[in-house]
């Protein structure tokens, strides 16, 4: 069972949506056409990781003295944690939007 899947048909949600979309961006499932959006868990995870990433960057940069390497390490940690947190999307009621 995939961590990130459509709540309606359980088809996988692409990693690109989770990493590069804004919190207000909606996603339509390719298989069943269900409309999904980010939920509260994704927003809290993103804000927490933004603070954690800034702290981690300053710690790593003070020890390594190479900003490019420190940035790479922070991005790897950030994207890994975003990918590991499940249930970051929920179905959107299309009838209430009209």
What does this protein look like?
- By secondary structure, the chain is mainly α.
- The protein has four helices and three strands; from the N terminus they run αββααβα.
- It has helices at 15-20, 40-64, 67-84, 94-97; strands at residues 26-28, 35-38, 89-91.
- A three-stranded antiparallel sheet has the order 1-2-3.
- Strand 1 (26-28) and strand 2 form a beta hairpin.
- The radius of gyration is 16 Å and the shape is elongated.
- The mean pLDDT is 82.
Helix fraction by DSSP (H/I, runs of at least 4): 40-55%
Which regions have little confidence, pLDDT < 50, spanning 5+ residues? none
Strand percentage: 5-15%
Please provide the ordered H/E string of secondary-structure elements. Answer: HEEHHEH
Number of helices in the DSSP assignment: 4
Mean pLDDT: 82
Beta-strand segment tally: 3
Q: What is the fold's blueprint, element by element?
A:
Elements: H1 15-20, E1 26-28, E2 35-38, H2 40-64, H3 67-84, E3 89-91, H4 94-97
Antiparallel strand pairs: 1-2, 2-3
Helix pairs in contact: 2-3
Keywords:
mainly alpha, 98 residues, elongated
In short:
This protein is mainly alpha-helical. The protein is built from 4 helices and 3 strands, in the order H-E-E-H-H-E-H. It has a 3-stranded antiparallel sheet.
């Amino acid at each position: 069972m995939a961590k990130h899947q459509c709540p309606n048909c359980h088809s996988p949600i692409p990693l690109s949506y989770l990493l590069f979309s804004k919190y207000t961006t909606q996603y339509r499932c390719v298989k069943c056409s269900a409309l999904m959006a980010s939920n509260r868990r994704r927003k809290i995870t993103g804000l927490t990781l933004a603070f954690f990433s800034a702290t981690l960057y300053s710690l790593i940069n003070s020890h390594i003295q190479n900003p490019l390497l420190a940035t790479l390490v922070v991005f790897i940690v950030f994207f890994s944690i975003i990918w590991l947190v499940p249930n970051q999307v929920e179905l959107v009621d299309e009838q209430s939007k009209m």
